[in-house]
C-alpha cells in the first residue's frame, strides 16, 4: 500500500475503535442501570450482569485479541460497568483518556486547509519548515504562546488529516502548468493560431481529414508546409552521474488536488541542442550551444570539425547541404539575443534572398510559389525573451520588424509545451537513440 493508503487505514481503524468503545460501554452501562433500578422494559436487562457482559463481548467482537496494539479490542469486564454506574456515568459515552485538548480542532483543520491552498497556489509546495513556521506564528500573541508544543500539534494535525496531508517529494514540473493547460486556454490559443495561418496564407478555412481519420477545421497548403517551422531545445548532459538514494518526502500534499510544482535545473557540463523541423517532414540544421566559463565565450574550431551537415531543399531550387551551427554561452543555454540571431540566420540560410516576403507571390502562369512568409513556432520562456520572461518593447519592435520582412514568430501557450509543442513528441525517441549510441 502507498503511504497515503496506510495513513488513511490507520486513521480509520482508530476512529472505528473509538466508535465501538462508545457503543458497547454506553449500552452496557444503560443495561446495568436498568437492572439496578428494576426497569425490565429491555429484555436484555433480565439477564445477569455476567450474561450482559458476555452478550456485549460477542456482539462487538471483543475477543481480547490485539491488546498489544489496540486497547479498544480489550474484553469488557463486569467491574468496569459497575464502576461506571456507581460514578453515575451510565447511558453516556465514556470520557476520553489522556490530557485535555487545549488547542481547538478547528484550528488544526484550518492549518490543514492552509497547506492544501499553498499546494494549489503559485508557491506550489508546503515544506516542513514553512508549515512549522506558520503554526508557530499562528499562536503568537494568544493564550497558547509560550506553552505551545509545536511537535505535538504537528503530529495531531497529520493524524487528523492523514488522507489530505501525505508526505511527498518535490514535483519537478513547469511552474503552474496545470493552471494553463485547461481546455478553454488551449482552444483559445488554437483558434488564434489557425486564424494566423489563414491570414498569412499558410492554410485555408476548408476542413480537411488527417491520415488517422481526424477532421480538422483548416487545410494546410502543400507548398507552405516547408515554410512552417517548429523549434525547441533539448538538454544533453555530458556527465555520467545519476539521481541516487535519499528520501524525497520533504513536502506534504493532498493527492486529490493538482500540484503546481517548481522549476528545476541541472548542473554540470552539458550541451544544449536547438532542433527544428518543418511540417513537410524536413529536419533543419541544428544549433549546438556549448558551456564556456570565459568572460567573452568564443567558439573553438575543434567543436565543429565532426559535426554533420543537413541535406534539404527548403526554399532552394534544388537540394543543398547546410552545416550545423554552434554558439558558446556561460550557462550553455539559449538566451534572448542568441534566439533572435538564430531565427534570422537560420531563415537566411534555408530560404535564399528573394524567397521570403510577407505577401505570397506565385508565378501567374504555373502557380509555383516564388516567395512568401516563413513561420517559426516556439515556446515561451526565458530563452526566448528577456529576463523574467517578460515581453519587452524591444521584443515587440523586433517581432514587428521580422514580420515586415516575412518572418513570423508564433509563441505557444505558456507552460503548456508538454501538451502543445510538436518537438516534445520527437525528443523522446531522439534522446533515447542518443543514449544508446553515446
List descriptors.
single chain; 438 residues; alpha+beta; six-stranded mixed beta sheet; two-stranded antiparallel sheet; 12 helices; 16 strands; 37% helix; elongated
Explain how this protein is built.
With 438 residues, the chain is an alpha+beta fold. Helix content is 37%, strand content 15%. It is built from twelve helices and 16 strands. The strands form six sheets. It has a six-stranded mixed beta sheet with strand order 12-9-8-6-15-16, sandwiched between helices. Strands 1-7 form a two-stranded antiparallel sheet. A two-stranded antiparallel ribbon has the order 2-5. Strand 13 and strand 14 form a beta hairpin. Helix 1 runs antiparallel to helix 2 (49-59), helix 1 packs across helix 3 and helix 4 (105-120) packs across helix 6. The longest helix has 35 residues, at 3-37. The model is unreliable at 66-72, 241-249 and 263-267 (pLDDT under 50).
In short:
This protein has 438 residues and is α+β, with helices and mostly antiparallel strands. Helices cover 37% and strands 15% of the residues. Strand 13 and strand 14 (369-371) form a beta hairpin.
Amino acid at each position: 500500500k502507498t503511504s497515503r493508503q496506510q495513513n488513511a487505514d490507520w486513521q480509520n481503524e482508530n476512529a472505528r475503535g473509538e466508535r465501538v468503545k462508545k457503543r458497547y460501554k454506553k449500552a452496557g452501562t444503560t443495561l446495568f442501570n436498568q437492572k439496578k433500578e428494576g426497569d425490565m422494559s429491555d429484555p436484555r436487562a433480565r439477564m445477569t450482569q455476567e450474561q450482559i457482559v458476555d452478550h456485549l463481548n460477542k456482539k462487538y467482537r471483543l475477543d481480547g485479541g490485539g491488546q498489544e496494539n489496540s486497547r479498544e479490542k480489550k474484553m469488557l469486564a463486569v467491574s468496569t460497568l459497575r464502576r461506571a454506574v456507581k460514578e453515575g456515568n451510565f447511558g453516556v459515552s465514556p470520557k476520553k483518556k489522556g490530557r485535555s485538548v487545549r488547542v481547538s480542532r478547528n484550528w488544526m483543520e484550518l492549518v490543514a486547509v492552509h497547506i492544501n491552498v499553498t499546494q494549489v497556489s503559485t508557491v506550489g509546495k508546503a515544506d516542513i519548515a514553512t508549515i512549522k513556521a506558520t503554526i508557530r506564528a499562528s499562536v503568537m500573541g494568544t493564550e497558547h504562546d509560550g506553552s505551545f508544543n509545536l511537535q505535538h500539534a504537528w503530529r495531531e494535525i497529520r493524524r487528523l488529516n492523514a488522507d489530505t496531508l501525505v508526505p511527498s517529494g518535490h514535483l519537478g514540473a513547469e511552474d503552474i502548468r496545470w493552471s494553463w493547460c485547461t481546455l478553454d486556454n488551449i482552444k483559445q490559443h488554437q483558434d488564434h493560431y489557425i486564424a494566423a495561418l489563414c491570414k498569412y496564407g499558410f492554410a485555408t478555412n476548408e476542413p480537411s481529414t488527417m491520415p488517422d481519420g481526424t477532421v480538422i477545421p483548416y487545410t494546410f497548403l502543400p507548398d507552405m508546409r516547408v515554410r512552417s517551422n517548429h523549434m525547441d531545445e533539448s538538454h544533453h548532459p555530458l556527465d555520467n552521474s545519476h539521481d541516487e538514494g535519499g528520501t524525497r518526502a520533504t513536502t506534504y500534499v493532498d493527492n486529490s488536488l493538482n500540484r503546481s510544482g517548481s522549476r528545476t535545473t541541472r548542473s554540470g557540463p552539458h550541451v544544449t541542442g536547438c532542433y527544428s523541423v518543418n511540417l513537410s517532414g524536413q529536419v533543419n540544421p541544428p544549433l549546438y550551444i556549448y558551456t564556456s566559463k570565459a568572460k567573452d565565450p568564443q567558439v573553438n574550431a575543434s567543436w565543429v570539425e565532426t559535426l554533420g551537415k543537413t541535406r534539404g531543399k527548403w526554399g532552394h531550387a534544388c537540394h543543398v547541404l547546410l552545416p550545423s551551427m554552434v554558439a558558446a554561452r556561460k550557462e550553455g543555454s539559449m538566451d534572448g539575443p542568441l534566439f533572435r540571431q538564430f531565427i534570422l540566420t537560420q531563415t537566411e540560410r534555408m530560404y535564399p534572398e528573394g524567397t521570403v516576403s510577407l505577401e505570397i507571390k506565385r508565378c501567374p502562369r504555373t502557380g509555383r510559389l516564388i516567395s512568401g512568409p516563413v513561420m517559426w513556432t516556439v515556446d515561451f520562456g526565458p530563452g526566448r525573451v528577456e529576463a523574467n520572461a517578460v515581453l519587452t518593447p524591444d521584443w515587440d519592435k523586433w517581432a514587428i520588424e521580422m514580420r515586415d520582412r516575412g518572418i513570423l514568430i508564433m509563441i505557444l501557450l505558456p507552460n503548456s509545451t508538454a501538451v502543445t509543442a510538436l518537438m516534445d513528441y520527437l525528443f523522446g525517441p531522439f534522446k533515447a537513440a542518443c543514449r544508446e549510441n553515446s
